[in-house]
């Protein structure tokens, strides 16, 4: 499957969030900025990246039909999503730098997995939905 402009938007959001975090964590820029502010920015850009290509993921999954997403993929991405959510909330509420790092790593991993899956998936097939008749 080919990548679209939405995939590019997701990549840009992840890249900007990662760059901002790296500049802050190394003291290169934003050094006086609170971890809460950085966490809010990373979290917001992560949401943008996640939603930018959401239609493509739904399309790849056959519009939500069962059996199209491997179980391991669902488990891994759900776990990473939980880490990102808890890490993001902890970083925002407690200004915790380790939680902020966990948010960034989970966000990057989710983007890599989603992009790899799209690149390795065949073109979506259009499923014909049959009406079931009850006798």
Number of domains: 1
Main pleated sheet: none
- Helix vs. strand class: mainly alpha
**Helix share bin:** 55-70%
Q: How many β-strand stretches?
A: 0
Low-confidence stretches: 125-129
Would you tell me the overall average pLDDT?
83
Radius of gyration using CA atoms only: 18 Å
List the total number of helices: 5
N-to-C terminal Cα separation, in Å?
Answer: 41 Å
Shape: globular
Element-by-element helix/strand order? HHHHH
Strand content: under 5%
Could you walk me through the main structural features you see in this protein, from its secondary elements to its overall organization?
- The protein has helices at residues 5-25, 35-52, 54-60, 71-94, 97-120.
- With 135 residues, it is mainly α.
- It has one domain (5-120).
- Helix 1 runs antiparallel to helix 5 and helix 2 runs parallel beside helix 5.
- The radius of gyration is 18 Å and the shape is globular.
- It starts with a helix and ends in a 15-residue tail after the last helix.
Question: How do the helices and strands line up, and which of them pair or pack?
Answer:
Blueprint lengths: L4 H21 L9 H18 L1 H7 L10 H24 L2 H24 L15
Helix pairs in contact: 1-2, 1-5, 2-4, 2-5, 4-5
Summarize this structure briefly:
With 135 residues, the chain is mostly helical. The protein contains five helices and no strands.
Task: Give keywords.
135 residues, mainly alpha, 5 helices, 70% helix, 0% strand
